Amino acid sequence: MRHFLRMTDLERGEARRLFARAAQLKRRRREGHLEDSLAGKTVVLLMEKASTRTRLSFAAAAFQLGGHAIELTASTSQIARGEPLSDTARVVSSYSDAVVMRTTADARLEEFVRWSSVPVINGLTDGGHPVQVLTDLFTVEEALGAVSGRRIAFVGDGSGNMARSFLEAAPLFDFTFQLGAPPQFRPPPAEAQAAGRHLVVTGDPREAVAGADVVVTDVWTSMGQEAEAAARLKAFQGFTVDAALLAGARAGAVVLHCLPAHRGEEISAEVLEGPQSRIFEEAENRMHVQKALLEHVILGGVQDVIEA
Ligand code: CP
Ligand code: NVA
Questions:
Q1: Are the C-beta atoms of 192 and 199 separated by less than 8 Å?
Q2: Does domain 130-282 have CATH number 3.30.470.20?
Q3: Is 245 helix (H, G, I), strand (E, B) or coil?
Q4: Superfamily of domain 7-129+286-307, CATH level 4
Q5: With a 6 A CB cut-off, is 132 part of the ligand 1 pocket?
Q6: What is the pLDDT of residues 42-87, one digit of tens each?
Q7: pTM for the full predicted model
Q8: Partner of 246 at 20 to 30 A CA spacing, among 75, 112, 229, 276?
Q9: pLDDT single digits (tens) 77-104
C-alpha cells in the first residue's frame, strides 16, 4: 500500500512525476476540463485538530477528480467518547479508498496506519506536515524553476512540523536547508544528522536568510502548544520575517508561509502581502498537488501526463 506519511515515502522520480501531474491538473482546471480519475472513490478526512486549508483542499480535490470526501472530526465522532483507534481505523477504512488523517502524536498516525486497510495520508502531525511541504516545493518550482541546488531558509520554530518536513525533504530534493532558530527550538538530532550536508543551522536569522532563494516561516506556537505561547513569543523575538530581514536574501527570493499566519509575529504584514510573497498561490496549490497525490495513493502510482 502506498501511504504518504513522510516526505521520504516518495522517491525522487515519483516526486518529479507527481509535480508534472499536479501542474497538468492545475492547467486543465484553468482551461475548464473536467476530470474523472477518482470516479466512485471515497476519501475520508479524519481531523483531530482544527483545519481550514487541508480539509477544504482535499475535499475539493476529491470532488474535482470525480470522487467524494467525507469529513470526520474527533469531537463529533465516537473518537471523543473513547472508541479505540484500532476499531475506528478498521471501520473508517472499510468505507473508503484513502484516509487523510490530521492528529497529534506521530505514534497515533502510525497506530491508525497499522489497522487501516486503505492508504493513509498524513494531514499534519506534531512531527511533520509533508503534504504542505510537498506543495511548498511545487510552488518554489513554479516561481523559480528546479529546486535542486537552491537555498531554502526557514526562520523560526525549527522544532515544529513544518521545519521537520522541510529538513526531511532537503536530501530528497537536493536543496540546502538554512535553518535560523533559537537553540531550544531545533529539530531532533537524528533528523538533523539524516539531512547531512543539506542542513545549515544558526541562531542568527540574518545568517539563515543570507543568499537564500526562498524564505519560509511558520507560527511560533503550533496547535497543541497553546500553554507555551507566552514563553515562545519571548523566545522568538528577533525572528520575524520582515522587510529588513528579507533584504538579506537573494534578490527575487520568494516567501512562503503555510498559513494561518500571525502578522507582526513570525511575519510582517508588509512581507506577507508584498511582491515576493507566493503565500496565496501556495495555499491554492495544496489542492492541485493533493489531486496528484490522491491519484498516486489510490490508483497505485502517479498518473502519466498524456495530453490529448
Ligand atoms: N496550512 C494548513 O495546513 O492549513 P490548515 O491548518 O488550515 O489546514
Ligand atoms: N505548525 C502549525 C502548522 C499549521 C498548518 C501547527 O501545527 O499548528
A1: yes
A2: no
A3: helix
A4: Aspartate/ornithine carbamoyltransferase (3.40.50.1370)
A5: yes
A6: 999 999 999 999 999 999 999 999 999 999 999 999 999 999 999 9
A7: 0.97
A8: 229
A9: 999 999 999 999 999 999 999 999 999 9
